[in-house]
Design a protein that fits this description.
The protein is mainly α and about 150 residues long. The chain contains four helices and three strands. It starts with a helix and ends with a helix.
Length: about 150
């Protein structure tokens, strides 16, 4: 596939996932702040304002987390651009998901001063998380799997 077509594919995936993230997050927070309650044995909807990163690290380190997020996004974009000739469409797809997740949390940190989390797992002691966090985890896990599969060939 041509380099330009791969970059367009990456950009479309990125834009789709970031708008999906922001749209669904806004709906979730609007409903939860309007009184929506939901809970079952697997998960609950529980709105919290998270001023840190995963697992409550770097609480109240908004500026540092903004800088780290921006650096990560630039590095991911540079990687995609530099490796357009050799990168697979699967890798483009999962880097786009990862980038959209980072950008979604970055957007909330800049606009609100915190990240809006709302999914809480009830069967395990785990931090409350959001759609951006899901995208980040899907992207990281899928990229690790792709790297491991490539190395075993």
């Amino acid at each position: 596939m041509e380099k330009t077509a791969k970059f367009i594919y990456f950009a479309i995936c990125y834009v789709f996932f970031i708008f999906t993230d922001l749209y669904l997050s806004n709906i979730m927070v609007e409903n939860l702040t309007s009184g929506l309650k939901y809970s079952n044995p697997v998960f609950s909807l529980n709105y919290i304002k998270n001023t840190g990163a995963a697992f409550s690290i770097l609480q109240d380190s908004r500026e540092l987390l903004i800088i780290l997020s921006m650096i990560a996004l630039v590095l991911l974009a540079l990687y995609v651009i530099k490796h357009l000739k050799s990168i697979s469409l699967k890798s483009c797809f999962f880097i786009a998901i990862l980038s959209a997740g980072i950008a979604g949390n970055l957007h909330e940190r800049i606009i609100y001063g915190y990240v809006r989390d709302y999914f809480q797992l009830n069967f395990i002691n785990f931090p409350v998380f959001n759609i951006s966090d899901i995208f980040i985890n899907i992207g990281v896990i899928a990229l690790i799997i792709l790297i491991l599969l490539k190395r075993t060939k």
